[in-house]
């Protein structure tokens, strides 16, 4: 219990100290999502179904691309599968989805 309290205090301090870098990272994540979404605009129609498919592919491709970077580096070094590949994808997806939801809410208000 004490270890968890110390860990959450240390992580909170780290977040406070690196807030500007975290903002830049989230902005880059959103820019990458927007770039992929715009690139897919030429492929899919402007209708509801095309927009849904384009959004789905953009939402899923960013975490897979980001998760592939450490996985490929691990493969080059160790020559076997990266053990936390799906966990990295889930963390990036949760951060991206949260940021997109916040941006969507800010755009509609």
Number of domains in the coordinates?
Answer: 1
The low-confidence runs, each spanning 5 or more residues with pLDDT under 50, are none
Please tell me what the overall shape is: globular
Binned, the helix content reads: over 70%
Q: End-to-end distance, in Å?
A: 41 Å
Radius of gyration: 17 Å
Overall strand count: 0
Following the backbone from N to C, one meets helices and strands in this order, namely HHHH
**Assembly type:** single chain
Structural class: mainly alpha
Strand content: under 5%
Main sheet characteristics: none
Distinct helical segment count = 4
Task: Tell me, rounded to a whole number, the average pLDDT.
Answer: 91
Provide keyphrases for this structure.
mainly alpha, 109 residues, 4 helices
